[in-house]
Amino acid sequence: MDRDIKLKENERIDDLQLKGLKIIQDTNGFCFGMDAVLLANFCDIKKNSLVVDLGTGTGIIPLILWGKNQIKKIYGIEIQQEVSEMAQRTMKINGLDHKIEILNEDLKEIFNVLGVNRYDVVVSNPPYMGRGNGIVNPYDRKAISRHEIACNLEDVILSASKLLKHNGKFYLVHRPHRIVDIFCILRQYKLEPKEIRFVHPKVSSKPNMVLIKAIKAAKPELKFHTPLYVYKDNGEFTSEIHEIYGLDNKI
């Protein structure tokens, strides 16, 4: 590990409690959330796969995927220069910068950089909110992460389709109210929805996240997973969330 990495103002290093992996986060910026952790856990990745994470942010999804799978290489794509530079430093402190490569590129054009029909798996935790949902500052890092400013859902799915091999897998986390849009756009770009799992805050609540697996050029057949509940009625995490996060309720 490279221990000479210097932290900037408001940055901290968090221990992921996963094979000694650590991540740099900006306490004033957009830190990773549960959606990224659940998406990484939802992915089923074969040994020696080539993986691309579209909109990687601070690099949390590549780190978890690396810690839980035997992956050949992961490319994390992030359009925000400051955020991508922080993710690059994270990979250096873990000694993984040759295995997890963070690229400061626009995901809408990334297939021109990485090539087409080459990758086994593409994952994405994209912005959930459309441009019309509230007033946002287009230069704010949190806004770019949450709102469709730099890209929209179709941009993400189109790039995923171009990057993937025939029968390659695409994993996505999003909001349930966008599910019709998601399925229509997936099929438009020859990504067939194959598995879906709804995430509920608790048993009595409607879902607030949805995890989707699609396969390029696959035949139609959709498998529904049992719902994932985050909290018990007493406010504690459920046993499945404990299992996903591991030791001491961390990743």
Relevant terms:
Rossmann fold, two-stranded antiparallel sheet, alpha/beta, nine-stranded mixed β-sheet, 251 residues, 11 strands
Secondary structure elements and their pairing?
Blueprint: E1 11-15, E2 22-26, H1 34-42, E3 49-54, H2 60-68, E4 71-77, H3 81-93, E5 100-103, H4 111-114, E6 119-124, H5 141-146, H6 153-163, E7 164-174, H7 179-188, E8 191-200, E9 209-216, E10 223-224, E11 228-229, H8 239-245
Parallel strand pairs: 3-4, 3-6, 4-5, 6-7, 8-10, 8-11
Antiparallel strand pairs: 1-2, 7-9, 8-9
Description:
This protein is α/β, with parallel strands linked by helices and 251 residues long. The chain has a single domain, classed as Vaccinia Virus protein VP39 (Rossmann fold, 3-Layer(aba) Sandwich), CATH 3.40.50. Helices cover 27% and strands 26% of the residues. It is built from eight helices and eleven strands. Strands 3, 4, 5, 6, 7, 8, 9, 10 and 11 form a nine-stranded mixed beta sheet that branches. Strand 3 (49-54), helix 2 and strand 4 (71-77) form a beta-alpha-beta unit. Helix 1 (34-42) packs parallel to helix 2 and helix 6 runs parallel beside helix 7 (179-188). The longest helix is centred in the middle third of the chain and has 13 residues, at 81-93. The chain is globular, with a radius of gyration of 17 Å. The model is unreliable at 143-149 (pLDDT under 50).
